[in-house]
Every structure is written in structure tokens, then in C-alpha cells.
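Bench notes, afternoon.
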Amino acid sequence: MIKRTILALCLAAAPVFVAAPAAHAATGTTSSSCPSGHYPAAVTGTPTTAKAGMTGMAVWADRTGWHLRVSEAGPDRAVFTGTISTDGTLKSVRRHDERGDVKVDLGAHRVVYRFTNYGAVDGIDFVVPCSSFVHFGVALDRHPLPARRIVVGHGNHHPAGNPFTIRKVA
């Protein structure tokens, strides 16, 4: 389990996660004390399937930072819970919610979230300056969300598992 988490995002499923550099705010700062490298280009851009009723989670980065969105098909109540962690500092956490019921517990290196969803879109935006990785875990109604229900970047890539980690590349 730990090795799968550490090896993380799509090593077996999609080699595109070691693709060319992408310049955006999600890469962190350029200070010499920060980890070098950049996040893979495959994580950039809004997934085309990130919309209300997708029954899953979408994650992507762009010039403004990282974005996470969840939704569940139908008007019934669904509860998404999870964590985001990094070796950098989590900053500028903004909430996007359909009914004002997003709960976020922010620490210096970790966010714990709970979204009560009724078919629209809930989520958060954040930046992680001076990070070398971002780790995600998500559950839907207390069950780990299958990796096939998680999409990353504009290409709608699926991670190898849940939880998963996106690491900077050289």
C-alpha cells in the first residue's frame, strides 16, 4: 500500500506523467531552497470530464495553482472526504461549493476536506510553493473512490490507484 502510494500517479498507466515542463503557479517558487523541477505537463489544464454529475474527482494545475472538483450523478446526497498533503506549504485554499457545506481543515502541509454533494460541483483551489509532491486521497460515502473515477489534467488521465501522488520531475 505504501509503495503504491509513493510510486503514485500513473507509473504503470500513463508514462505521460514524466512529460515536458509546464510553466504555472503550481510549480512553486524559484528560490534555491525549494525543490527543483516542475510538475508534469500532463497534470495541466481542466479535465474535459470535470463537470456536474461526473461521479468522481477531477484534479489539475494551471498558472493560478491546483484545483480539485468532485460531483456525483443525481440529486441524492453524496459525501466526498479526503486529504491533500505536500512537503511544501499549502496556501490560498479557496472553496467552491453548491450549498455552502464544504468543510476544510487546513494545516501547514495538509488539508482535510468534506464535501456534501447533491449533483452539482464542490471543490477547492490551492497553491503549494516550494513543494516536490502533492498527495491526494478521496473517498465517496466512506469507500475509497476507484481510480477510474479520478481524472487528472486536460487529457483525463487516471492515477494508478487511490491515494496517489504527483511528483515534480527534473
